[in-house]
Amino acid sequence: MLDLLIRGGHVHDGERFLGQLDIGLRGETIQAVGRLEVEAACELDARGMLVCPGFIDAHSHADLTLPGHPACTNLVAQGITTVVAGNCGLSPAPCGEAWPELPTRLGRLAGLDEGYPRCRSFGQWLEYLDQLGIGVNVAPLVGLGTIRGAVLGPTDTAPASASAVKRMLWLLDEALEAGAFGASAGLDYVPGRYAGPDELAALLRGVARRRGIFACHLRHEGDGVRAALEEVLNLAGETGVALQVSHLKAVGRSNWGTVPRLLERIERARQELDVACDAYPYRFSAVLIVRDLLPPWCADATPNDLARLARDPEQRRRLLEDLDRGRPGWGSPLGDFRWDYAVVSAPGLKEVRGRSLAELAARADRHPLDVLVELYVKCPDVAFSLTMSETDVRAVMAHQLCLLGSDSVSQDRPGGGRRPSHPRGWGACPRFLGRYVRRMKVAGWEEAISRMTARVADRFGIARRGRLRPGACADLVVLDPQQVDHDGGLSTPRRPPRGIRWVLVNGRLVVDEGQPTGVRAGRVLRRV
Q1: Quick one: 208 and 307 in the same domain?
Q2: DSSP class of 437
Q3: How many domains, in total, are found in the chain?
Q4: Where does residue 384 rank: exposed (0-12), middle (13-18), buried (19+ CB within 10 A)?
Q5: Which percentage of the chain shows pLDDT scores above 90?
Q6: Residue 179 half-sphere exposure, CB side, CA atoms within 13 Å?
Q7: Are residues 229 and 281 in the same domain?
Q8: Phi/psi class of residue 299: alpha, beta or left (left: φ > 0; alpha: ψ in -120 to 50)?
Q9: Average pLDDT in the 96-107 region?
Q10: Which residues pair with 384 in a beta bridge?
Q11: Which of 17, 24, 321, 347 allows an S-S link to 32, with CB 3.0 to 4.6 Å?
């Protein structure tokens, strides 16, 4: 007798459509796929529905907020059952003495005033997640930025010495031995932007020896995006590592139309390299003031600190000069985009959402820096975005080498929440299927589902996930292909998606008739 029988859905096994079939589950495992005449303790009528493997989020930051939001309600609500976490060079471990404030910063992101774990090794972090109980499966990457910070601290701009690289390699090897699927870098973020070519090459050789993958947030996504892509392609060629280009985009109006050329370059590189990319289906990104916009000497600035700094003539001159020209080891993101950042999230300040710093400054006849500081003082959780071209987004969504990633953290509930939010956190998968597959038809359903399931599993080496076949883990989504979508935008980022009827993680219902159940059935996955 089966535990659950899903009747009569249009089954996609992760690679192709199989037809109108039944799926039988026992415990955490798929037992049979076909026309089944067997008894089951429970049945779900999936006639008229599409049944497919649970979506695997190819680019997630859910690990950063799991200690505060372990149920991952926003992820399971959109059909995500597994996340590839630890991206952009930042993972919660290993936490070294040179970066003691890392757990405190991540605790604020997770909504925890205290209690965020301080894990000195990557294995200790995975053991913590094992005990926590989580809503989705986590395939972890180790962040090279976290490793650099553990050895040298977050603001050391000097090239790493041979002894420092040796210590980084030791931490990397420990993480890969503990089960990390590979490593990530955020070459546009502190401290990853300080990593030089020799340091990166040494670490990537270590990843390649373990047959892991390297996911990389490029050093520039604006004016320097093509050179930034060449940088990582050269590193992949030198080290032999498998390269995943993270959230491929070209931001700033002067760069609109660049993405097709980036995709063509990746296609050419595939003749010699193992390279692919991922993206999210939105025209706007999300960045934070201190982490992403300001120079490293402002890395610890509170809102009041920044306000005092902006009033001091000498400090203000220094800050504006750095924002305009950058400084050694740090390229200013504002230098490329000339304050063309729009407010994407500002709890309690709805009147500024969607407006750029340049626009707000012009309206008030003030300098954009003063507007930035004022917003930060009023709302420390304010987040900004740079816009991409819809044509570029459509091009990357259509491309067969592009996997889907939400680029989001875990959240608990729709509606409120004190942290900045982006609609991709609740709707990346439904929006891709509703807007870009059903309405725009940039990809067919068969290929689109494959790029969210089996191809992600194959790309990252995730065993027994991403396919519906006997013996596979019972991660499934049952959705209405005529209804699936997400209507959330800048003003309503946490709106629940539509059309996701049932979601199972390891054989347990985590979404029932469109409503998250709160069941935490996820597992920490380890690369073997």
Answers
A1: no
A2: I
A3: 2
A4: buried
A5: 74
A6: 19
A7: yes
A8: alpha
A9: 93
A10: 287, 343
A11: 24
* CB proximity list for 140: less than 8 A, separation 6 or greater: 63, 85, 86, 91, 122, 125, 126, 179, 180, 181, 524, 525
One-letter identity of residue 522 = G
The three-state DSSP-derived secondary structure of 349-379 is CHHHECCEHHHHHHHHCCCHHHHHHHHHHHC
194 and 320 inside one domain? no
In a domain, 486, yes or no: no
Query: 414: pLDDT confidence band, cut at 50, 70 and 90?
Result: low
- The stretches of 242-332 forming alpha helices (DSSP H) are 259-269, 303-311, 313-325
Question: Are the CB atoms for 74 and 494 separated by under 8 Å?
Answer: yes
Question: Cα separation of 502 and 58, whole Å?
Answer: 21
Please name every residue paired with 29 in a beta bridge, in sequence order, or none if there are none: 26, 473
Determine the pLDDT at residue 417. Answer: 44
Range of the domain at 426: 55-285+387-469
Per the listing, tokens 């049952």 go with 478
232/250 Cα distance (integer angstroms) = 16
In a domain, 242, yes or no: yes
CA gap 393, 397 in Å, rounded: 6
Q: Measured between alpha carbons, how far is residue 175 from residues 91, 123, 221 in Å?
A: 11, 6, 28
pLDDT at 333: 66
Span of 48-52, 143-147, 388-392, 511-515 with lowest mean pLDDT = 388-392
Cis ω on the peptide bond leading into residue 94 (within 30° of 0)?
A: yes
pLDDT tier at 419, thresholds 50, 70, 90: low
Q: Are 96 and 212 part of one and the same domain?
A: yes
The rounded Cα 107 to chain-centroid distance in angstroms is 18
476 in any annotated domain: no
- Measured from the Cβ of residue 270, the count of other Cβ atoms closer than 10 Å reads 12
Domain final residue pick, 384, 407, 441: 384
